[in-house]
């Protein structure tokens, strides 16, 4: 197999969510001496970007999105330590979780897939994540952005509780806070003092990139 | 083998009408659209105190064949209790169907129950201790029935055994600690989206069969939840409900405006022996024929009016 064939294969097999094949092609590529970053940026990420685009157009459905995301995650598990060793930077680190009291995770998982497809490193804390857990995870992982997901009007108030906990821990200024979920609105996001809101998965990616660019420009200017 | 358990009957009432949810009864369609979640214009109107959009939703669900109406007033940044109380009064002035009062805010449930005339269905409680302790006393106080979900603090249990265990807990706490009749507990066995995990349909069906066999309880579900994220949602919902009914599901919270899904439910009623001599099925057929004839006549009249006289 040529290097070009490895990349094409990775792209196509990720697109159809063939996890075992994606992992096998990743191994083959590494065995041939290909750079982990090449596999990531020239095959996996473009493929997941295409998955997201098709989902947004209504050409792809939830199961297809999930299996593609899982195929990429399998390869990333293999690549992540190698990428870290070679000092390859992702575009940003995104810490994600569904708030305490809420067990809904499909929407959050779709957003994670889109973020990974855009080159973010995503750390997913799962569902029912208490404010203290967000605080300790922010301390541990030092993410650029933290995302709170809520599916119920009754669990949305946890956004405010989480933000309060970040303030109390002195972490609020270090991290961009994004909120989202079916009942959430821009108005509600503003009311609780979040930095960003997006209505769907692809809008989340755009908003996350914008917020990150804004923050980096600010840090650059302030330095 | 132990004796088969009694099959439970959940009786709901408005001021003037009674509806029975039960295994030997026609499936209970709980019309679901009186709910502003995800509807921006509706939310803004409600915030401004304008409840007029509710009338249209009620009319559509009644016309579609709903037996009970689910009323949810979950609008962020508002006084949900006051809104729900007003909505309940309004809906009861528009229809004699019993109401399923839908909120996870305890104060809103209480306000809704206090305003309601009849015997309501409360939607919902989970198996979490503090939810049971907050909501079951209201169910008892206002002589209502309650939808209960077998999930607790952790994730939604994906295996049937854990859900059955939590149903057991709900039944024990509700009947022994709060004196609620087992007839008035309606379990939502948690039918998850099939698009996110291909095994969830089978798990839900297994859970439904087991709940019926052990306790004979009534059950309900959000009918459209199973098809989330999939194309052809109506067809999936229309296949799901008869499968669930065959296993022991006795009601669903669903959009009665979708004829394909309502018809699948009534056809399954007929086939399960819950529609004697096909009375309901034939009546639905005649209504459909009459509506089509009326539409045709109206179209012909409009065409005749548009044609200039010779």
Automatic annotation (TrEMBL), chain A:
SMART domains this protein is in? B12-binding_2
B12-binding N-terminal domain sequence ranges: 1-91
Q: Where is the B12-binding domain?
A: 91-222
Metal-binding as UniProt keyword: yes
Keywords from the named record:
Cobalt, Metal-binding
Q: Does the keyword Glycoprotein apply?
A: no
InterPro entries from the UniProt entry:
Cbl-bd_cap (IPR003759), Cobalamin-bd (IPR006158), Cobalamin-bd_sf (IPR036724), Met_Synthase/Corrinoid (IPR050554), Meth_synthase_dom (IPR036594)
Q: Which is one GO molecular function term here?
A: metal ion binding
GO annotation, biological process = homocysteine metabolic process; tetrahydrofolate metabolic process
Do you know which Pfam families this protein is assigned to? B12-binding, B12-binding_2
Of the GO CC terms on this record, one is: cytosol
- Please report which protein family the annotation says this sequence is part of: Belongs to the methylamine corrinoid protein family.
Q: What is this protein called?
A: Dimethylamine corrinoid protein
**Which organism is this entry from?**
Nostocoides jenkinsii Ben 74
UniProtKB/TrEMBL annotation, chain B:
Protein name (record): Pterin-binding domain-containing protein
What biological processes does GO assign it?
homocysteine metabolic process; methylation; tetrahydrofolate metabolic process
Gene Ontology cellular component terms for the protein in this record: cytosol
Annotated GO molecular function terms are: cobalamin binding; metal ion binding; methionine synthase activity
State the SUPFAM superfamilies in the record: Dihydropteroate synthetase-like
List the InterPro entries hit by this protein, alphabetically.
Dihydropteroate_synth-like_sf, Met_Synthase/Corrinoid, Pterin-binding_dom
Q: Keywords in UniProt for this one?
A: Cobalamin, Cobalt, Metal-binding, Methyltransferase, Transferase
Pfam families xref list: Pterin_bind (PF00809)
Report the residue ranges that make up the Pterin-binding domain in this protein.
27-272
Q: Which family does it belong to?
A: Belongs to the vitamin-B12 dependent methionine synthase family.
């Amino acid at each position: 197999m040529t290097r070009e064939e490895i990349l094409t294969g990775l792209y196509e097999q990720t697109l159809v969510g063939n996890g075992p094949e994606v992992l096998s092609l990743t191994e083959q590529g590494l065995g041939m001496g290909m750079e982990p970053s090449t596999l990531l940026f020239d095959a996996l990420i473009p493929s997941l970007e295409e998955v997201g685009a098709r989902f947004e157009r209504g050409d792809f459905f939830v199961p297809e999105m999930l299996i593609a995301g899982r195929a990429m995650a399998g390869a990333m598990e293999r690549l992540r330590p190698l990428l870290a060793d070679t000092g390859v930077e992702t575009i940003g680190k995104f810490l994600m979780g569904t708030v305490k009291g809420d067990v809904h995770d499909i929407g959050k998982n779709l957003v994670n897939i889109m973020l990974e497809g855009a080159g973010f490193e995503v750390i997913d804390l799962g569902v029912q994540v208490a404010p203290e857990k967000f605080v300790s995870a922010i301390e541990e992982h030092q993410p650029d952005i933290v995302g709170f997901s809520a599916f119920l009007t009754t669990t949305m108030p946890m956004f405010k509780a989480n933000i309060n906990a970040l303030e109390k821990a002195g972490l609020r200024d270090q991290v961009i806070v994004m909120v989202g979920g079916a009942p959430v609105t821009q108005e509600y996001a503003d009311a609780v003092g979040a930095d960003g809101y997006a209505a769907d998965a692809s809008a989340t990616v755009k908003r996350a990139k914008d917020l990150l660019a804004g923050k980096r420009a600010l840090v650059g200017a302030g330095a | 083998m132990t004796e088969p358990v009694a099959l439970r009957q959940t009786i709901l009432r408005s001021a003037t009408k009674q509806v029975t949810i039960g295994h030997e009864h026609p499936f209970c369609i709980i019309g679901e659209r009186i709910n502003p979640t995800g509807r921006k214009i509706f939310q803004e109107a409600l915030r401004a105190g304008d409840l007029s959009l509710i009338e249209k939703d009620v009319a559509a669900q009644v016309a579609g064949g709903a037996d009970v109406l689910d009323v949810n007033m979950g609008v962020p940044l508002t006084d949900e209790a006051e809104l729900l109380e007003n909505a309940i009064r309004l809906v009861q002035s528009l229809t004699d169907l019993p109401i399923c009062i839908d909120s996870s805010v305890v104060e809103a449930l209480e306000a809704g129950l206090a305003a309601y005339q009849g015997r309501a269905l409360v939607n919902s409680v989970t198996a979490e201790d503090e939810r049971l302790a907050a909501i079951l006393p209201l169910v008892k106080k206002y002589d209502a029935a309650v939808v209960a979900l077998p999930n607790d603090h952790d994730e939604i249990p994906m295996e049937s055994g854990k859900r059955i265990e939590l149903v057991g807990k709900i039944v024990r706490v509700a009947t022994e600690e709060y004196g609620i009749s087992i007839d008035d507990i309606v379990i939502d066995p948690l039918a998850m989206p099939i698009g996110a995990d291909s095994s969830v349909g089978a798990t839900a069906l297994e859970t439904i069969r087991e709940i019926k066999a052990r306790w004979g309880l009534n059950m309900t579900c959000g009918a459209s939840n199973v098809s989330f994220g999939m194309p052809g949602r109506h067809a999936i919902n229309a296949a799901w409900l008869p499968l669930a009914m065959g296993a022991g599901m006795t009601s669903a919270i669903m959009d009665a405006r979708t004829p394909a899904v309502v018809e699948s439910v009534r056809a399954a009623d007929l086939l399960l022996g819950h529609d004697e001599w096909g009375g309901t099925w034939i009546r639905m057929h005649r209504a459909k024929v009459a509506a089509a004839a009326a539409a045709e006549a109206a179209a012909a009249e409009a065409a005749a009016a548009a044609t200039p006289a010779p």
